[in-house]
Amino acid sequence: MTESTEATVARRVPSITEERLRVLSRRQPVTVEPGTSLADCVRAIQRTGTGDSVFVCDASGRLVGVLTERDVFARIVGGTVDLQQPVESLMTTDPKTLDLDDTIRDAI
After folding, report:
1. Which helix (H) or strand (E) holds 53?
2. What pLDDT, on the 0 to 100 scale, is given for residue 9?
């Protein structure tokens, strides 16, 4: 197996790396409000079947955090998570984001 760096991938598919993210198909993200229990977040992920994360948005719709299945399940295996805790107890705050005008290269 060969190492895949951004440069090697970019050389192999130069035309696509400069495309804007808006050309990719998108689906509505799963969103929850702060204070939602971890159990409800996991159910939302399972119910929608559209991904492995939920976006935590405040009342104005501003993104305040992201919770992935990995965040929850890694702690379940270790026995250190109470699913009744609010999403804020495990979510990643201040997540890095991209704009739809950014390129696929930027995302890579």
Report:
1. strand 53-57
2. 65
